[in-house]
């Protein structure tokens, strides 16, 4: 038997009786419209209290009402659905449907009267159980003229009809849990019968029936109580650099909304790698100012973002875990989170980079899956953090295996200026995000050499070719089209013109050409002020794979860039990459551990 707690969980389906949806019984209102209110209402009450059989009550009420189809049409115009709804029911149904809960409507009344209400509430016709009126048809005109009773074959025509309707619903869809909400004795039957509903919620907002209140597992007078009790996803951000902050800011705007369809807990905990900032703890400064002055200065993150120095505390109880740390730290992060995340949580990685182990490459999403034992999607795109902070138009894709999770993450991230597409090629998307950082170094070298856009375009084009070749060589299932997405060519263009890898590689090349060489580490700390460069590490990691597999000649640009950053070739070779890769492998020549 389900309990009230079941309702708060994410998996259930919902059946609501007509009496809990409208402020007045449809048939009573029709009776009023037809001028026969009193006798019909008396019969309704007898049926709801269980003292008269449903079928007889319906027959007697219809006989008294004695309406025509034209009367029904006029009745619907005079009493439009919006004027008849119980306060809060539309919000409740919206909130349930936003969570993927199937909502059904069951009425002891008639389809002709209830369908306009269902349509207004967004309940599909096929999810409505109600009786059908029978009409006498005119021999001459072929049109219905007179009401002559109703179709008694529908489950709703009889007592015990609601459990039968539930049995039909279960036949169609083997739901885990069916929750029934109602206000009458016949609604209660729905849960008191084997195979019926798993949980009954009594509603006393229109009519309070003591017998129903006494038996209900949970009795409410206001639907807000039900909306407020719905489970919401708790979000954690693991990381607090520039991109992590730009994303947490968008998520915080999306989680803090006054909307019944909102599926997210307002508060987002953000794990911050603790450090001193001007003599104070960075987490304290973030929580006081709601800004990250070191990594993302000038942007309000949102009052609902809470910076925490403990990674366990940040991830504790989170349903959705967003990972965004420089790739060299993710292995350590995963080890710290092992066994600390909810088993049914879902993750998404925003990190661009990969890990190379002796046994082969490992994508960050694979690492997360392996260590945390949860699904991990990726979000990749042409996304320079500060431009997104300034709310400039940008695109990303969510590379996914699990579509439901991807759709949920899309809701979490999407803003009017941040467009998200769903891409069923998570590996391809992640490979694009990883490899474009190598090409960006090449673009920076072109800039450092003082060359123009033609040369940069050549590097970008060749880079794209090698990104695609390498990704498909490692992971043959990667799709060709992925490289034309915003995570492929889009990100290449953005990073090769506006990224940090480009910036540092340009400065490095200039220093080299001026005869006063600087290291990447020096320039990283000087120009990026704590932010991290991913391209140099990635180039070395990818080169290790190329070398081991004897693929270097197939990737002349990647190989040449790697030889330049390691000081084996001068930066000028970036525009002569075919020649750059023909020299014998310096790492091998110097006795590397290559096989
Ligand atoms: P960042 O480079 O701005 O900041 C570095 C982060 O690393 C800081 O949060 C710092 O606290 C943290 N850090 C430093 N030492 C650490 C340690 N030992 N352990 C754990 N964390 C440590 O970070 P970012 O821009 O958010 O980048 C994260 C990932 O997002 C990278 O893979 C990057 O390629 C990717 N990305 C960045 C951008 C961007 O515009 N910045 C855009 C898209 C993707
Ligand atoms: P950089 O790390 O080179 O700034 O690139 C950021 C990025 O990935 C933009 O999509």
What report would you give on this structure?
- This protein has an eight-stranded mixed β-sheet with strand order 13-10-9-14-15-18-19-20, with helices on both faces.
- The radius of gyration is 32 Å and the shape is elongated.
- The chain has 595 residues and is of the alpha/beta class.
- Helix 18 links the parallel strand 19 (394-399) and strand 20 (418-423).
- Helix 3 packs antiparallel against helix 4 and helix 19 crosses helix 24 (535-548).
- Mean pLDDT is 92; it is low at 590-595.
- The protein contains 27 helices and 20 strands.
- Residues 352, 382-384, 437, 440, 491, 494-495, 499-501, 534 line the site of 1,3-dihydroxyacetonephosphate.
Topology at a glance:
Elements: H1 4-8, E1 13-17, H2 26-33, H3 37-48, H4 54-65, H5 69-78, H6 89-98, E2 103-110, H7 111-121, E3 128-131, E4 133-137, E5 144-150, H8 161-172, E6 178-182, H9 185-192, E7 199-203, H10 210-215, E8 218-220, H11 223-229, E9 233-238, H12 242-255, E10 264-271, E11 276-277, E12 280-281, H13 282-289, E13 305-308, H14 311-315, E14 320-323, H15 327-337, E15 346-349, E16 354-357, E17 360-363, H16 364-372, E18 375-382, H17 385-389, E19 394-399, H18 403-413, E20 418-423, H19 426-448, H20 453-474, H21 486-498, H22 500-513, H23 520-528, H24 535-548, H25 556-565, H26 577-580, H27 586-589
Parallel strand pairs: 1-2, 1-6, 2-3, 6-7, 7-8, 9-10, 9-14, 10-13, 14-15, 15-18, 19-20
Antiparallel strand pairs: 4-5, 11-12, 16-17, 18-19
Helix pairs in contact: 2-3, 3-4, 6-11, 8-9, 15-16, 19-20, 19-21, 19-22, 19-24, 19-25, 20-21, 21-22, 22-23, 24-25
This protein binds nicotinamide-adenine-dinucleotide (NAD) and 1,3-dihydroxyacetonephosphate.
Nicotinamide-adenine-dinucleotide (NAD) binds at residues 239-244, 273, 295, 324-327, 329, 350-353, 383-385, 531-532, 534.
